[in-house]
């Protein structure tokens, strides 16, 4: 399923649900959380519950912002391609570049404001 088809399916699902969903991950959770959706000024936004900012993260970064990126990338791929461990290594960099190429944005492997916007909003 293409990213654009996933967005259409996501929009339809949220429209049918008719509300804002928000879930924070549990420490005892065996599998990484699935992003939830909410409405913002720009439309639908994805959120896993690890981080809600837009700080730049890149290879070598660690922490909750990286976990958020990894979780959302798993969502966009429709399967778990990354372990959500908060360590921005070569595999995370590879999948960030793949995501960036898919949206035709600069494929530098760095998650800055443009990439965050596409990860969260798909636009």
UniProtKB/TrEMBL annotation:
Residues 1-30 form the signal peptide. The keyword Signal applies. Keywords: Signal. Residues 63-119 form the Peptidoglycan binding-like domain. It comes from Streptomyces liliifuscus. The keyword Signal applies. This is Peptidoglycan-binding protein. InterPro entries: Peptidoglycan-bd-like (IPR002477), PGBD-like_sf (IPR036365), PGBDSf (IPR036366).
């Amino acid at each position: 399923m293409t990213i654009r088809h996933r967005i259409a399916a996501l929009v339809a699902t949220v429209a049918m649900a008719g509300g804002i969903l928000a879930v924070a991950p549990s420490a005892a959770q065996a599998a990484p959380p699935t992003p939830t959706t909410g409405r913002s000024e720009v439309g639908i936004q994805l959120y896993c519950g690890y981080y809600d900012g837009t700080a730049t993260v890149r290879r070598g970064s660690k922490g909750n912002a990286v976990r958020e990126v990894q979780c959302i990338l798993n969502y966009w791929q429709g399967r778990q391609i990354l372990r959500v461990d908060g360590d921005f290594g070569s595999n995370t960099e590879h999948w960030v570049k793949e995501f960036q190429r898919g949206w035709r944005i600069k494929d530098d492997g760095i998650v800055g404001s443009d990439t965050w916007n596409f990860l969260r909003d798909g636009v």
